[in-house]
Amino acid sequence: MFEKTLTDLIQGLRANKRNEAEYIQRSLSEIQREVQLSDMHQKSVAVDKINYLHMLGYDMNWANFNVVEVMASPRFGEKRSGYLAAMQSFHQDTDVLMLTTNLIRKDLASANVMEVSVALDGLAQVATHELAQDLFDDVLAVMGHTRPYIRKKALVCACRLVGRYAEGLPEFVPLLKDRLDDPDPTVVAAAVSVVCELARTDPRSYLSLAPKLYRLLTTSANNWMLIKIVKLFAWLTPIEPRLAKKLHAPLSHLVSTTTAMSLLYECINTAVAGDIIDVQLPATDSVGREIDFAELCARKLEQFYESRDHNLRYVGLVTLAQLQARRPELVAAHYNTVMRCLDDPDMSIRMRAIEAISGMATRKTLVATVKRLMSQLVLSNTVALQPDSRAELNVESEMSDLPLINAAGASLVSAQGTIVPPKSDNTSDVADNPEYRLAAIDAIINMCSRQSYANMTDFEWYVATLADLVYIAGVDVGQRLSERLLDVTVRVRQVRAFSIKMARRLLSDSCLVDRATSDGTNSPVLATSAYIMGEYCALQPSSAEDIGLLLPPRLCKLSDEQQAVFVQAAMKVYANWLKDVSGYWNPEIWELVRSVTSSTQHTLSSIFMGVSTCAALPLQVASRLRMFAEILKTVSMATSNMGDTAPPVCAELQSLFSAYELNPVSAAAQGKVPVPEDLDLDTYIGEPIPDTMHKVMPPPSPPAPRRQSSAKDPFILPSVDDIPMVALQLDTPVHAHKPRKSKKKSRRKPKPRSPSPPPAPVDIADDEDIVSK
Asked: What is the pLDDT of residues 221-258, one digit of tens each?
């Protein structure tokens, strides 16, 4: 009578804050003594206390058997304590669960509704594969209980058991289908929830429930259940396309009339995901006017992303992006609203706004959209302008004008900016998040290059934008920027000269080149810039400074592929420059050629520690170095003496690299080439290659000759003629060999055999007798 209750334990914990661990250890010792008592009430109180301590992090596995004892108590209060402790502490590997099978079966069949309820709750939490297999039929039997309260719990418990025992699903589905017609609406709601949970993984198995679900969709007024049903049809419609036309009317009615935002979102999401918006049937808005269902959904979405609730704005932008992929002409009207979401302080909303806005850009809105995204990247202080130009250029005002390049076509950021670390103050911005910056840059690239630059009107602006992103990216996107820069330069001939200017500007930035080996500096763009300068150097007059840009001092620190690109580009630029200056040959030009050739040789030697060590370099770099060294050596020898005219090598060297132009080739270009009439593609060009699978095997080789053995060997015959012939005598009688008698005599005496009975007379009827009878 003096044992502590659960209330005493909690009060003691609050009173012993300083020595809480010591108090808990004393309490555990008391609990261990109490669970061994025969009094079930004291044992249940002890289980309540150990269950409370278990929630504080203390182990109670040692009391598992005592928990089972309390579960078997005939009193409901004690039984409930045992089930609660089991639900809190038992897991799949608990060894005492095998002792609970008959206990739970007995409680499921109890006449006390509360005992059935607590048994269903406990079984749903602690069920293993073995328990689910043994008790599945008992739970199915409880689904027909007279109390709706029990039927609801039985449905949910059976759903949990199916997760452990999948073989019981075929038995469960027919009963689940019957519960959809239950007279109690709460049981129907529970059945719909169970179907929604099970159909999440395998919706095809529940397609047969579509008629009853449709009836509930058109007759029920329970918004919570309607949400579940609409979500179910979002999974069933892609499997059965005929449902789209059937669902058009009820969904359009719900979209027009419902005031519940959660139900409205599910209806719009189902209409978009199930292609119901493509059904050519009119819908009716809230005032009774006929309107296209897709347009109705687009208008209703405004309530979401114009709401102050961040959750509604998020789901509205997600659905808007899905609608934009199917009906972009409807989403274009919401461009300004989505643009305002780009300034939301919530990063998740900004990310969804970027996803939606990237598909809404057109020729008219492309520049403004890119401008807004780049302004966020610039204003986050990831790029800082030079001190002398900061006073002249107001970044915020410049971002509000068109575009990021000035009237002369020069990029403002790439011309005046330099890479610096992000913000040094303690303030943080969403645009400083690397994930957001990466998403913004991807959106810019995708918007500009979509459908082979269908929305692009100014390619020089696009090239300048790519150059700006090298500086303001703040994340490592060098590979993507280099791919886009090379792609637009190769595809668009008119922009190649401007690309050379931007490439020269990037390579002239000593800060960018010196930090090329650091992370996040977008160094792949440098190799692409070098390739552009070398491949299209004939479009602009080359200079000796361009050769120096392509042979920076830190070239050997770059990757092997980048080194090879730089050396190859330097060769091309040198050859093009040599051809340009050879047309104005005079002593000054001769001195210039000698000086540039000598300085280039010295630069190569200083970068790669001497041309003689090319064997230690990668093959692709060493081969180009040797070629460049030989070219420089040949030019140096040809220009050793001043002549009246330039040596032929100066004018002809450029032809080594400009024999033909590299043009872009589409992957589908070969399919557009017509086949000549006199060309038979089925005939062999050369000798047909034999098929080894059906090749005829050669005949087997003849057997080796037998070894001539000695004539005395009785087991080997020299030839067939030497086989002895013996005459067969058929008149000789054949004597059968008698079996040998055993010498042992049988000890058993033979039993006297009784005489056979005399044969009994049998009357056999003739055929005539059978017929007569």
From this structure: 899 999 999 999 999 999 998 899 999 999 999 998 88
107 Cβ contact partners less than 8 Å away, ≥ 6 residues apart: 79, 115, 116, 118, 119
Could you tell me how far CA 93 lies from the centroid of its own chain?
Answer: 33
For the entire predicted model, the pTM comes to 0.68
Distance of CA 161 to the CA centre of its chain: 30
Q: Helices (H), strands (E): how many in the chain?
A: 36, 4
DSSP one-letter string for 105-130? HHHHT-S-HHHHHHHHHHHHHH--HH
Domain extent for 560: 542-659
Cα–Cα distance measured from residue 173 to residue 214, given in angstroms and rounded to the nearest whole number: 18
How high is the pLDDT of residue 149? 93
Residue 632 forms part of a structural domain: yes
Is residue 270 one of the residues assigned to a domain?
A: no
Among residues 303, 299, 233, 295, the alpha carbon closest in space to that of 262 is found at 303
Find residue 411's DSSP bridge partners.
Answer: 405
Tokens of 33: 């003594």
Contacts of 182 (CB under 8 A, 6+ apart): 148, 151, 188, 191
Tell me how far apart the alpha carbons of residues 579 and 598 are, in angstroms, rounded to a whole number.
Answer: 17
Looking at the DSSP assignment, which residues form a beta bridge with residue 283? 291
- Token duo for residue 561: 């592929």
Q: Check residue 392 and give its pLDDT.
A: 35
Helices (H), 492-552: 496-508, 510-514, 524-535, 544-549
Q: What one-letter code names the amino acid at 238?
A: P
Q: Which of 301, 326, 331 is nearest to 316 (CA)?
A: 301
In angstroms, the CA 427 to CA 646 distance is 64
Query: How long, in residues, is the chain?
Result: 773
Q: Which helix (H) or strand (E) holds 440?
A: helix 434-449
If one counts every other C-beta atom within 10 angstroms of the C-beta of residue 714, the result is 6
Helix axes 148-164, 169-179, angle to 10 degrees: 150
Contacts 24+ apart (CB under 8 A), 403-406: 403/367, 403/370, 403/371, 403/461, 403/464, 403/465, 404/371, 404/374, 404/464, 404/465, 404/468, 405/460, 405/461, 405/464, 405/465
Which run of H or of E encompasses 291? strand 290-292
The C-alpha atoms of residue 98 and residue 69 are separated, in whole angstroms, by 13
The token pair at 732 is 């000789």
Is 566 part of a structural domain of the chain?
Answer: yes
Q: Where are the alpha helices (DSSP H) in 327-362?
A: 328-331, 335-341, 347-357
Closest CA to 476 of 414, 421, 527, 523: 523
What the block records as the tokens of 686 is 């050369």
- Establish if 604 belongs to a structural domain: yes
pLDDT in tens, 737-771: 555 555 555 555 555 555 555 555 544 444 444 44
Task: State the Rg of the chain over Cα.
Answer: 46
Cα torsion at 71, 73, 78, 84 (round to 10°)? 10
What is the per-residue DSSP string for 364-385?
TTHHHHHHHHHHHHIIIIIEEE
Mean residue pLDDT of the chain comes to: 81
**What single DSSP character describes residue 405?**
B
| Residue owning tokens 């509604």 | 312
Tell me how many domains the chain contains: 1
Looking at residue 634, its amino acid is T
% of the chain with per-residue pLDDT over 90:
34
